[in-house]
């Protein structure tokens, strides 16, 4: 369990959003944290893959070949 103390202006915005949407402030805060974590995890993975590529540990596939492989019009 994590307890956060938010600045008053953020807490007011969160409570106002909760009132407008009928969802709890907790639900909105949880969703926002989850979205941010997913973005950070995606960024970390992309940076790791880029480093692997720079070290010659992975291959690339031309976009045209990838689109052809998966039947995407080009």
Mean pLDDT: 95
Largest sheet: none
Uncertain parts? none
Q: Can you count the helices?
A: 3
What is the string of SSEs from the N terminus onward? HHH
Helix percentage range? 55-70%
Number of strands: 0
Strand content range: under 5%
Report the radius of gyration as a whole number of Å: 21 Å
What sort of overall outline do the alpha carbons produce when their principal axes are compared? elongated
Determine the N-to-C terminus distance. Answer: 49 Å
Please state the structural category.
mainly alpha
Keywords:
mainly alpha; 69% helix; elongated
How would you characterize this protein structure?
By secondary structure, the protein is mainly alpha-helical. Helices cover 69% and strands 0% of the residues. The chain has three helices and no strands. The chain is elongated and about 50 Å long. The termini are far apart.
């Amino acid at each position: 369990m994590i307890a956060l103390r938010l600045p008053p202006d953020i807490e007011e915005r969160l409570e106002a959003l909760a009132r407008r949407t009928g969802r709890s402030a907790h639900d909105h805060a949880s969703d926002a944290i989850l979205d941010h974590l997913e973005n950070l995890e995606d960024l970390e993975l992309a940076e790791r893959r880029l480093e692997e590529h720079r070290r010659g540990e992975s291959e690339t596939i031309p976009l045209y070949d990838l689109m052809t492989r998966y039947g995407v019009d080009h």
